[in-house]
Write a structure and sequence with these properties.
The protein is α+β, with helices and mostly antiparallel strands. The protein has one domain. The protein is 40% helix and 19% strand. A 4-stranded antiparallel β-sheet has the order 1-4-2-3. Strand 2 and strand 3 form a beta hairpin. The longest helix has 16 residues. The protein is globular, with a radius of gyration of 16 Å.
Length: 159
């Protein structure tokens, strides 16, 4: 299980070491267990780092600035944007299938563009780390790098 309080405290320490003003009480975390609903927005005045989890594995970590809410809410479930979780899974389904027992692997290998979005909702959990928008894009990048290091996502980088 992910300890969101510990993540906030650790992020505040990393920010302090980077000489960035980000206090743990300004970090808002949320865990959406599988099956989850796609978020409809993130709180006004914030930006976010998010992660898609499949059981004990992280599939993807991303960030969304205050003007890129679609990245946070919907793009990863489809194929109409660059570097989405959906595209990553469809490009290399074995990376995900190998995380399942043999009985469940075939389900992943049968996914296509019309089924991938609902499969992501049904099978993955999400973690959201929201920070104030005024913290800026460098701080958002710092939070994303921290979460990538902590969670070690299976899919990372542009697809």
């Amino acid at each position: 299980m992910i300890d969101l309080v510990e993540i906030s405290v650790s992020l505040a320490e990393v920010a302090r070491l980077a000489r960035v003003d980000l206090q743990s009480h300004n970090i808002k975390n949320e865990f959406l267990p599988a099956p989850h609903r796609r978020p409809s927005s993130f709180p006004p005045g914030t930006q976010a780092v998010y992660a898609f989890l499949l059981a004990e594995s992280c599939l993807k970590v991303g960030n969304a600035g205050p003007k890129t809410q679609a990245r946070f809410t919907s793009q990863h479930y489809g194929l109409d944007a660059p570097s989405t979780l959906a595209k990553s899974i469809l490009r290399d389904p074995l990376k995900v299938a190998n995380l399942f027992s043999s009985e469940q692997r075939s389900e992943v290998q049968l996914l296509d563009g019309s089924s991938i979005g609902s499969w992501i909702e049904k099978n993955t959990s999400r973690v959201h780390i929201c920070i104030p928008a005024e913290a800026g894009h460098f701080t958002l990048g710092l939070v994303e790098a921290f979460i990538q290091c902590r969670f070690q996502p299976v899919f990372e980088g542009k697809v």
